Amino acid sequence: MAIHNTAADHRLPRIAPPCGLVIFGITGDLARKKLLPAIYDLANRGLLHPAFALTGFSRRDWEKGDFEDFVRENVMKYARTKFNEETWETFAEGLRFVPGSFDEENGYRELMKTVHDLDKTRGTGGNHVFYLSVPPKFFGTVCEKLQATGLTEKEPGQFRRLIIEKPFGHDLESARELAHTLTGIVDEKDIFRIDHYLGKETVQNILATRFANAMFEPIWNANYVDHVQITMAETIGIGSRAGYYDGIGAARDVIQNHLLQLLALTAMEEPATFTPRDLRIEKEKVLASVRLPANLDKTTARGQYGPGWQGGEQVKGYLDEDGIPPDSTTDTFAALTLYIENRRWGGVPFYLRAGKRLGKRVTEIAVVFKKAIHMPFDEEATQELGQNALVMRIQPDEGVTLRFGAKVPGADLQVRDVTMDFGYGHAFTEDSPEAYERLIKDALTGDAPLFPHQNEVELAWKILDPVLAYWESQGQPEPYRPGTWGPPSAETMLGKRAWRLP
Ligand code: BG6
What is the pTM of this model? Predict the structure, then answer.
């Protein structure tokens, strides 16, 4: 019988095939701070093919040398791994720059020449990926020009892929229109929608925690779980992102995608396998079972940060931020209550909240359990005992915390909450790769489990659209002070329950 060394083979990371990556919007913040460093880190980790080529497309009047300087500067500033001259030299040989504007065909024709030249001289093999790191209003234009200039045409065995960044529309209807535009130029399987939360190690760890262990899944249901809280809190304001953020707001910016993906991973059934299709089937099932409560006035909250102090610094209110209209009704805090109508979760509220200028930067999922049905102690003994909770700490203090009751040392029997902690920093010596490293490599390799499918995008809009419509009918969001946990209605929407203080 043949002996297969499969265990070792599985551990070998797959490297990306020979291909070129073209980034539209190369001078933007996302490209500078996240994409370029992540691509360089992949090269440094040996995960890119030696023939890999990166082409920047932008309106700048740059020569190749200017582009190289630009990439090098941002890589040195933001990359996770140590700068290595040898990696840089090979990497820099594959850099190209094409000046052009999104709406003029000339630039795309130049790009076509560059792509052909890369196939001939660098060995990119006719495989090309187009990364649309551009404001959504340009998605349609870039797609149309890519197609009109023949850039999406390929020979059998070659690939053309699109990577796009959210927002994937601003409601269900526009999300469908966008999908129509994208599938007009490449197949659905060649569209990679980035939800960078899915690239985070701690988010993938939700699956390991739930499905690689025996002890959590039996209690992961309405018999034992009282409610679930998903929090994504940021201390920053909108900074220089007025153009992107205003009119979008917290719910569209992060609940529609990141938080609903976290909910899906937390609540879904075990997938048959971890292939993109099987994972998607389970996520879609759970998203399709989500129901909003009838009384949105009492079960949701919407806020906008006012001026104040945060961390010893005086900060502007949202309406005073540069580029924000003085009567903007954009939400910088949003919270929802959702129910999942299936046998596992019937009656268990899922509370989701996200906001800027809150008390602390933290993203976590807290599964809060019911109290024990019987406690053989004096009432005073358990007065300080809260509810058991399993908290999956997504960031910044990555790990998992289990909260439960323990006896306080002493002659009396007193029970109090204690915690048991797993922290990535303590348990593993290796740093976690950045989300964008994982996602870019997967898109180049054609590996799709960590990318939301159009169906998931649409289901998420179906959940959110009625809430957005209700909020729109309500005028101005409630103001809240920076450094707090949102407007007063965020507290009252939980009824007799309370948000955890992360
Ligand atoms: C992005 C949002 O998707 O996530 C931003 O558009 C937000 O508004 C950012 O600041 C937060 O990302 P992270 O990885 O720091 O939690």
Answer: 0.94
3-state secondary structure 106-136: HHHHHHHHHHHHHHHHCCCCCCEEEEECCCH
Which residue out of 196, 240, 244, 305 has the highest number of ligand 1 atoms within 8 Å of its CB and is therefore the one to mutate? 196
Query: Which amino acid residue places its CA nearest to atom 7 of ligand 1?
Result: 254
For the chain, the average pLDDT equals 94
Q: What is the DSSP string of 30-50?
A: HIIIIIHHHHHHHHHTT-S-T
Q: How far is the CA of 498 from the centre of ligand 1 (A)?
A: 25
Of 197, 462, 247, give the one whose Cα is nearest residue 338: 462
Q: Separation of 383 CA from ligand 1 center, angstroms?
A: 39
Do residues 55 and 24 lie in contact, with contact meaning Cβ atoms separated by under 8 Å?
Answer: no
Mean pLDDT for the stretch of residues 383-394? 96
DSSP assignment, residue 502?
Answer: -
402 Cα to the center of ligand 1, angstroms: 26
Tens digit of pLDDT for each residue in 266-300? 999 999 999 999 999 999 999 999 999 999 999 99
Q: Is the CB of 253 under 6 A from ligand 1?
A: yes
What span, in angstroms and rounded, lies between the C-alpha atoms of 489 and 502?
19
Round to whole Å and give the CA distance between 226 and 239: 37
